[in-house]
Specification:
Length: 318
């Protein structure tokens, strides 16, 4: 018999989905057969599979060692070396805000949000390394739920990134992001003389081969067969002098390269953004863009009530 105790990191998921996580080689038919035969119990009782797991719940598997080994497969093999290496080697990352279900990290320029390939390290690995270092997670917990970043910034964009610590937190925040309930604001620097103030709409099409997007102001201008997404960007000029224009960007939709390409299409590319026609020099090595503020929506339930309308922001050299 094998027993698993549900903890804070992996609660709030259906039993059948949890069983699939810990037994990735098991078919759904096998899992439901074992549930029917009471070879899998939840809190020492028969279970159907659709129960929502809570902290301290007990999941018992009455399998032979041979069957368990066969069904767990890759579940047993969780390497933490890359997480520890990322936490040690990636410099400039910091925890701006920490909650029991998530944290908000500061990502510097020239750091990937997520891995490009097996040979790279990213903020995602740094976050797991941090949780390992503080004891929030461990090897056993990582087998059942792997924390991760919930939104992305381009490699050379700095600023705030949301990182889910628990399954519950990841699910809830992902839903907020999907429904655009969470507001995200950026500081951007463009050429002097910018007079863009208001809400700007357009259509964005991404070329995955070149990793570059095109912006169309009018839908009729989009070539036939080209896939596109509507975008909305809020722009407010905070300052404009002889050196640059400082803008606050309200990212109303969040598409790949949206701010960079949209500003360029409007005639004011980001300083340092060579891909989208921005001026580069010794003082503008990276695109001048920083995700500096996140605003939570109104929340009424007790668990997250303290986060209702909460603003998380960083001080940025403007």
């Amino acid at each position: 018999m094998k027993e698993f105790i549900i903890n804070k990191t992996n609660e709030n998921q259906r039993l059948d989905k949890y069983l699939k996580r810990i037994m990735p080689s098991a078919s759904n038919a096998f899992i439901y057969k074992m549930l029917r035969k009471k070879n899998i119990e939840l809190n020492s009782k028969r279970a159907k599979g659709d129960e929502i797991l809570k902290s301290n719940d007990s999941v018992k598997l009455f399998f032979s060692d041979e069957t368990f080994e066969k069904m767990t497969g890759s579940y047993k093999n969780v390497e933490i070396v890359e997480f520890e290496e990322a936490f040690k080697s990636i410099k400039g990352v910091s925890v701006v805000f920490e909650h029991e279900d998530f944290m908000i990290l500061y990502k510097p320029e020239n750091v990937l949000t997520q891995k490009e390939n097996n040979d790279t390290l990213s903020l995602n690995e740094w976050g797991i390394g941090y949780l390992l270092s503080t004891g929030v997670t461990d090897t056993e917990s990582l087998r059942e739920f792997k924390p991760s970043v919930l939104n992305r910034l381009d490699r050379n964009t700095k600023g705030l990134v949301i990182f889910g610590k628990t399954l519950k937190g990841s699910q809830r925040l992902s839903e907020m992001i999907k429904k655009r309930q969470m507001k995200k604001y950026y500081f951007a620097k463009t050429e002097p003389g910018c007079d863009l103030n208001g809400i700007y709409k357009a259509y964005l099409s991404k070329n995955n081969k070149t990793n570059k997007v095109s912006i169309y102001t009018n839908i009729d201008d989009i070539p036939e067969g080209v896939k596109y997404s509507p975008i909305i960007t809020g722009i407010k000029v905070l300052r404009s002098d002889t050196e640059c224009s400082l803008l606050e960007i309200d990212l109303i939709t969040g598409k790949s390269h949206q701010i960079r390409s949209h500003l360029s299409s409007l005639g004011f590319p980001l300083l340092g953004d060579a891909k989208y026609n921005g001026r580069t020099d010794k003082t503008n090595k990276y695109q001048s863009l920083c995700a500096y503020k996140i605003v939570f929506p109104k929340i009424t339930d007790e668990d997250w009530k303290s986060l209702s309308d909460k603003t998380i922001q960083i001080n940025v050299d403007k």
